[in-house]
Write a structure and sequence with these properties.
This protein is mainly alpha-helical. Helix content is 71%, strand content 0%. It has nine helices and no strands. The chain starts with 5 loop residues before the first helix and ends in a 10-residue tail after the last helix.
C-alpha cells in the first residue's frame, strides 16, 4: 500500500485539528456529535482510502476545503454563523451560510468525482463530467432525506437548529439546486485541468 504524499498527510492533520476546534464552545452542543462526529469517525477511513486509492493533491485539497467549511459552520449549527457581524453589508433576514456550504459542495466535489470516474471506474472524460453533476444532485437528495428523517427524532428546537430550514418550506429543493449549480459552474475549470486524468499525485 503506497504512503500518502506529505501534502495529503498535512491535509488530514488540518482536519484532525479542526474537529475539536469546531466542537469547542459549540452553540448547540447536543447537535455537535451529529455534525462533527461523522468527520471524526470518518477520518481514519479517509486516511486508509487515500492510501488504497490515490488521488491528486488537487482533489484531496477540494475534499479538505469542504470538510473544513463544514466544521466551521458546525460550530454555529450552520443557521447561526454570525457573518453579518463580520460583514454587515451581507446582513439579511435569513442566514444564508448553509446555502453557501451546499453551493461549495457542488463546486468542490466535482473534481474528485471526475477524477475517480476516469481513474478508477473506466469512464470517459465526458461521461465522468456528467456523472459528477448527477452524483452531486443524488448525494444532495439523499442527504436532505436523511436530514428530514433524523430531525423527526429530535426535539423541535434542536431539529430546527440542525436542519436549518429557517421557515422555508422549499429549503431542501433550494439546497439541492445550489449544489447542482455549483457542480455545473465547476465543469469548465475541471474539464480544462490535467491532474484528474490520473497522471499526477
Amino acid at each position: 500500500m503506497p504512503s500518502l504524499p506529505r501534502a495529503q498527510t498535512g491535509m488530514l492533520a488540518v482536519v484532525a485539528l479542526g474537529i475539536p476546534l469546531s466542537a469547542w464552545g459549540a452553540l448547540y452542543p447536543s447537535n455537535t456529535w451529529l455534525q462533527v462526529g461523522p468527520v471524526a469517525i470518518g477520518l481514519p477511513f479517509a486516511w486508509r482510502a487515500l492510501r488504497r486509492t490515490p488521488v491528486s493533491n488537487a482533489s484531496a485539497a477540494c475534499m479538505t476545503a469542504f470538510v473544513m467549511l463544514h466544521l466551521f459552520a458546525a460550530r454555529w449549527s450552520y443557521s447561526f454563523v454570525p457573518y453579518g457581524e463580520w460583514l454587515p453589508a451581507l446582513t439579511a433576514e435569513r442566514n444564508h451560510f448553509d446555502r453557501l456550504v451546499h453551493f461549495a459542495f457542488g463546486v468542490l466535489a466535482t473534481a474528485p468525482l471526475v477524477e475517480a470516474g476516469v481513474r478508477y471506474w473506466g469512464l470517459t472524460a465526458r461521461m465522468a463530467l456528467f456523472f459528477a453533476v448527477t452524483a452531486v444532485l443524488a448525494v444532495g437528495g439523499v442527504y436532505e432525506i436523511f436530514e428530514w428523517s433524523l430531525t423527526l427524532a429530535l426535539a423541535p428546537e434542536a431539529a430546527g437548529a440542525y436542519n436549518g430550514e429557517q421557515g422555508d418550506m422549499f429549503d431542501a429543493q433550494k439546497d439541492m439546486a445550489l449544489a447542482g449549480l455549483g457542480a455545473v459552474l465547476a465543469l469548465p475549470w475541471v474539464r480544462g485541468a490535467a491532474w484528474w486524468q490520473g497522471t499526477e499525485r
